[in-house]
Write a structure and sequence with these properties.
Helix content: over 70%
InterPro entries: EmrE-like, PUP_plant
Distance between the termini: 45 Å
Subcellular location: Membrane
Shape: globular
Number of helices: 14
Membrane topology: Multi-pass membrane protein
Number of strands: 0
Protein name: Probable purine permease
Main location: membrane
Order of helices and strands: HHHHHHHHHHHHHH
Radius of gyration: 22 Å
């Protein structure tokens, strides 16, 4: 039996998400490990691939125009002003979040950074409770506690987790920056959801792609200003010549870093619309041990007992959160079914 189009899209977006979620941090570590030192430039690379989103948007536009041939004017962009302004605000926050993450990854191992970033799941639930009135269940509280304890275990394990030729101060600052990146991203996710709810537009996959493109473009401009202030453009050519893997491979790393990070964004959005945000979150959490293992294999990063405990707590917290969400959704659907089966009274007709 042939798979339907929705199933094919889910599989494609899962592949995109897996490539971006695992490959993005590894490419950035490759950059820093082989002589790359520009924090703002590496932040810039996380969203500069946003023009790639124009291809699916163009495809969507051509489909709409064929479907509405009798109408003379078919708008290329569907986004209205309120949602456009919201995407600009989210983009500025994302640009700063990219900087925090790049700064952290310059001074801590990929495996450690991935474990810290996993804590954002619990804090996303916390922010969503206040911003979009998401229900807070005992499973959510359990997840927040476990993910926070996991980050604390990593902090206590800092002395044996430093990179080569790195001071304790650099490690601590990198650790704090990565925690800040996780917290800020945890705030951005419900902010985007709130923007959708307040937009008064029907949110389609095309509209979500438009939002993502504007967000990434603004974040890229934010980092571009940082690059100009830091003088990155003056030293990129020299950094490429001094790159340990060679000048040509420097530009290969740069280009593929941008493409791989964009695959993450497109895959995450695609899964939310083809399946659900729950499936997207499960996929990201399921890839956590893969990223950690790849970092240990590719860069010979240390994997001490403390990091193993943190990984276990992170996975436990993620499973707890998603199990609670599944139970809550099952309960909500059951209540909706019961309400739909209630008899309609004369006064309601």
């Amino acid at each position: 039996m042939m798979m339907n189009m929705k199933t094919v899209l889910v599989i494609i977006n899962c592949i995109f998400l897996a490539i971006g979620n695992c490959g993005g941090p590894l490419m950035m570590r490759l950059y820093f490990q082989n002589g790359g030192e520009r924090i703002w430039f590496s932040s810039f690379l996380q969203t500069v691939g946003c023009p790639l989103i124009l291809f699916p948007l163009l495809f969507s536009f051509l489909r709409r125009r064929r479907r509405l041939e009798e109408q003379e004017n078919t708008s290329f962009f569907l986004m209205k002003l309120p949602l456009f302004m919201a995407s600009i605000v989210a983009g500025l926050l994302m640009g700063f979040d990219n900087y925090l993450y790049s700064y952290g990854l310059a001074y801590i191992p990929v495996s450690t950074a991935s474990l810290i970033i996993s804590a954002q799941l619990g804090f996303t639930a916390l922010f969503a409770f206040f911003m979009v009135k998401q229900k807070f269940t005992p499973f959510t509280i359990n997840a927040v506690v476990l993910l926070t304890v996991g980050a604390v275990v990593l902090a206590l394990n800092s002395d044996s987790d430093k990179l080569a030729n790195e001071t304790h101060k650099e490690y601590v600052v990198g650790f704090i920056m990565t925690v800040g990146a996780a917290l800020l991203y945890a705030f951005i996710l419900p902010l985007v959801e709130l923007s959708y709810k307040k937009s008064r537009q029907r949110i389609t996959y095309t509209l979500a792609l438009e939002f993502q493109m504007v967000l990434c473009f603004v974040a890229t401009c934010f980092c571009l200003v940082g690059m100009l202030v830091a003088g990155d453009f003056k030293v990129i050519a020299k950094e490429a010549r001094d790159f340990k893997l060679g000048e040509s491979l420097y530009y290969v790393v740069v280009v593929f870093t941008a493409i791989i990070w964009q695959a993450f964004f497109v895959g995450a959005i695609g899964l939310i619309f083809c399946a659900s945000s729950l499936v997207s979150g499960i996929m990201i959490s399921a890839l956590l041990p893969v990223t950690v293992i790849l970092a240990v294999i590719c860069f010979q990063e240390k994997f001490q007992a403390g990091k193993g405990v943190a990984l276990s707590l992170s996975l436990w917290g993620s499973v707890s959160y998603f199990y609670g969400q599944m139970k809550y959704e099952e309960k909500t659907k059951a209540q909706e079914t019961q309400l739909s089966q209630l008899p309609v009274t004369d006064s309601e007709t």
